[in-house]
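3.2 Worked example (two chains)
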Amino acid sequence: MSHNADRRRRGMGLLFLGFAAGMLIAGETILSARLRQSPWLTIIYWLACFGAVILAMIVALLDFWIVRRRSRAEQRGLLQETLDNIAHEKKTRETSREIGKPDGDSRP
């Protein structure tokens, strides 16, 4: 079950990662001669590439934390539902025994 926020967050992560990969490829091929001419341009360019990678990592960690939190909440909900079902079945069996009805597990 993917929510719109999940899709948006994952799309942003993919965008940052794609941007960093594009910068890496361009910096090593098309722009390599130009980047060698200016040390400041090189530093700024590779810092921007590094920044895109860091942003992709931040988005990935945020997604991980959100998915983990949601999973814990679902597990707690399932556990509570199971415990409620067990308590309800126990109460139903006790009630049926009090009334004198045989329950489904009675054996002669």
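3.2.1 Second chain
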Amino acid sequence: MPPSLVNDDPHKREQRLLERIKELDLAHRNRLRATGVGQALSLRYLRQLAQRLVTPPKTVRAGRVDAPAPGEMSLAPVGHACVQIVTSRARVLTDPLLTEFVFGLRRAIMPALTGPDRDDVTCILLSHGHRDHLHPPSLRRLPKTSLVVAPPGFETTLARLGFPQVVTLAPEESCQHGDLTLTAVAARHEGGGRGAGANGYVVQGPEVAVFFAGDTGYFSGFQEIGRRFRPDAVLLPIGGYAPLPLRATHMSPLDAAYALEDLQARLLVPIAFGVLPLGYEPLDEPPRWLRAACEARGLTERLALLAPGERVTLRRPT
């Protein structure tokens, strides 16, 4: 990790952050500045949409994600931004997206979630109100006994969906669930609702912690989250970044590699790629670019590129 990221001098931290933002902006401009790239990307996107409509989604055989030993935490991507975070006393599902179609888009891979795991969900963590993150048809499939944690502004929507236990958290607010402390943190993204915001969340267990970013652009908050919480693993989105203006509120794979350094985490599990064509980039581009970015920055051993249905279990570092 670059020493300047952990320097306690606020002025030096701010200087280094500005340098990193300039590095990222230049790298992305160089990658996407080809003449006529906007038109080429838009035509490619339309072809990608047409192909998805006539191609059935791939199904994966999802195994049951059993509760790990006390003090451990299992992460199991379901697809898009939906991940199971499982401990011995809680089963959290982030931004559930469990249907084949979402606002007319057909997913490339069906959700990797067994019926028993779905029925065992104890907490639903919602980052913001965009349809691919707060998806009413998917929420209707989940136990109404689940605690729902969301940013302020979605109380009425969630009550109409039949969830009696709703906790709204603004950034810096926390709540307890099972053996977990759930803390809302800021995100650089629109909330997707009238007056509503967007959250990331730090999910802290007795021994390990994970940061779920939801949907966000690269911003200074990653360094602060890293200093305060030192998460063991981070769930960072890496899709929907092309064309270039989308980077204001979405991260590219290169942004995620820089954010991993800022967050000082042991492990990056990328999310929000390969399922829905939300940006102009090909569905298979984000993981390839992320691998290359991590190799270039010496981060390969900290990358866990999990497909839906795979999982990793976190333990306290020895």
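3.3 Remarks
The mean pLDDT is 91.
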